[in-house]
Design a protein that fits this description.
Elements: E1 2-3, E2 26-30, H1 34-50, E3 57-61, H2 64-72, H3 76-92, E4 97-99, H4 109-115, H5 123-134, E5 138-142, H6 145-149, E6 160-161, H7 166-182, H8 187-204, E7 208-211, E8 229-231, H9 232-244
Parallel strand pairs: 2-3, 2-4, 5-6, 5-7, 7-8
Antiparallel strand pairs: 1-3
Helix pairs in contact: 2-3, 3-4, 5-9
Length: 253
């Protein structure tokens, strides 16, 4: 279990009481994979600094293979309980809200929200809002095999999710799993997925490719992405930041 703090404040290690400068305490279920966890941490820390606020966050490390086992077994309740084990620990460490920086783990998001001891930031809520704002009708998905073949677990009912061909699914899944395992991007991975994105945009007329894997933020950004895309991690982070700084809590509707 890790807790972030501001080393410039000598009182942080002694005083966890309320502060006008401190945000709500976030519990992050990390490790799914490590690169995505680091990306969320760095992004939230920089945003808090820009707003003149202190990030208050605790992190627990979950295991990607365990998540894959529950998804492959179609065990939503089992996965929700697995993740809730970490969320209970995060709550005990002071977390007030929780987030999971991984799309595949959202396989059980409805069951998780119903049983979690903390409000959970649902990555699909932010994505649905963005798709509506863009009036997108046909999309493709980059992510794990489970995310792609399930059409984002049926969470998006107002858009058509165009399926990749079987070999394309294999290539995307293997590329993504390796990226999540190593936490390291490469020009080869970027070039391969970019080519596939251009192929499906031209071949199937999709409006955008959804980057439905938080580790894809290690590979794609605004400066190196030349196809229409929607970044789930960026949308999730924006929602989390709004919630932490007092502009709205998850699960409030």
């Amino acid at each position: 279990m890790y807790r972030s703090h501001n080393p410039g404040r000598a009182s942080d290690d002694k005083d966890d009481g309320p502060s006008m400068n401190k945000s709500r305490c976030l519990g992050l279920v990390g490790g799914l994979g490590v690169g995505a966890t680091v990306h969320y941490y760095e992004t939230l820390a920089k945003a808090h600094e820009a707003y003149g606020r202190t990030l208050d966050m605790v992190i627990a490390h979950a295991e990607t293979p365990r998540v894959f086992e529950y998804v492959q077994a179609n065990d939503r309740n089992g996965l929700a309980e697995y993740l809730n084990g970490y969320i209970r620990r995060l709550k005990a460490a002071g977390a007030e809200v929780a987030a999971i920086p991984a799309v595949t783990a959202h396989f059980c998001v409805r069951e998780l929200i119903a049983t979690s001891p903390l409000p959970v930031f649902n990555i699909f809520d932010a994505l649905a809002q963005e798709l509506a704002a863009r009036a997108a009708r046909r999309v493709a998905v980059f992510g794990t095999r489970f995310v792609m073949e399930s059409g984002l677990f049926g969470e998006l009912r107002k858009v058509e999710i165009v399926q990749w061909r079987p070999q394309e699914v294999d290539n995307i899944h293997m590329t993504y799993v390796e990226l999540a395992r190593t936490g390291k991007a490469s020009e080869e991975k970027h070039r391969a997925l970019t080519a596939l994105a251009h192929t499906i945009v031209k071949r199937d007329g999709v409006d955008a490719v959804i980057l439905a894997g938080t580790d894809l933020a290690l590979l794609f950004n605004e400066t190196n992405t030349d196809f229409p895309y929607i970044d789930c991690a960026a949308l999730h982070l924006r929602a989390i930041l709004n919630g932490l700084l007092g502009e709205g809590l998850p699960n409030s509707s």
